[in-house]
Amino acid sequence: MAGYVLRRFLQLIPVFLGATLLLYFLVFSLPGDATAAICGDKGCTPGVEASLRAQYNLDQPFWMQYLLYLKGVLTFDLGTNFAGREISTIIAEVFPTTAKLAVMALVFEAVFGIVFGLFAGLRKGKIFDSTVLVVSLVVISVPIFVLGFLMQFVFGVKLAWTNPTVSGDASFTELLLPAIVLGLVSFAYVLRLTRTSVIENANADYVRTATAKGLSRPRVVTVHILRNSMIPVATFLGADLGALMGGAIVTEGIFNVNGVGNTLYRAVLNGEAPVVVSIVTVLILIFCLANLLVDLLYAWLDPRIRYA
């Protein structure tokens, strides 16, 4: 098992290097000069411009810039933004809010998606199954910003069950509605994926064998059907964690959440390439670690991986 974990961890290194190299190349190959965003329309004097280019390593060739960037990542020195603030400080201020929002959305889509998908799969072709299929299809079809504004208007303005926007404290109750909006589309995918897996495994030979042995229906469902159905669902949830963190831009904009998404959006608008690269690098790390966790879950869900 230890060797399996080590191999999976080592596989993440080239993935991280390749993703960050591509990210760095795409961001810093954009037309224009980063110093123009600092100096404004009037421009800077040649001396100030040369100093800025040296400060942000823009006077170095691309490969040297990338190596210095990797060194900063490994030493937790992400540099400063154009206003002179430490980027690591900026991320530390906004990251907890987005992490809380993404985890709440992940729990919502995982718990409710699996439960509804399980019952729909066990009742294939019945009213409950048909209803959740139609509802999930509607959720997938409607854009997330439409769902966000609609739920904000209904639950935040008309019914006044919660605040329409999130305050600086970002309490659990305030983040509950944005988390549901953020995880709503993924909830529909988890539901349909769980339903399909449950239907497939419910007709497998090992399920009929377990039933013939006299095992109780709850044990057959939980141990044999549900557990084996979780392998594709776990894959989706692991990949979705990084997508939720990055996809929070729209949700955080609708509910005025001071998180990573809003910070990343402002950095793109202001042309602050160091901030953009640093935030996306953190998201890449989260994505890699989430996939490592999924690989470990495989070994628990499927005993054949442990024995292999």
Automatic annotation (TrEMBL):
Q: Which domain of life is it from?
A: Bacteria
Predominant location: membrane
Which family does the entry's similarity section mention?
Answer: Belongs to the binding-protein-dependent transport system permease family.
ABC transmembrane type-1 domain location: 95-298
Q: Which UniProt keywords apply?
A: Cell membrane, Membrane, Transmembrane, Transmembrane helix, Transport
What is this entry's stated membrane topology?
Multi-pass membrane protein
Keyword Heme appears in the UniProt entry: no
Keyword Membrane in record: yes
Q: Which CDD domains match?
A: TM_PBP2
| Protein name stated in the entry | ABC transporter permease
The places in or outside the cell where this protein is found are: Cell membrane
Q: Which InterPro entries match?
A: BPD_transp_1_N (IPR045621), MetI-like (IPR000515), MetI-like_sf (IPR035906)
Q: Where are the transmembrane segments?
A: 12-30, 101-120, 132-155, 175-191, 233-255, 275-301
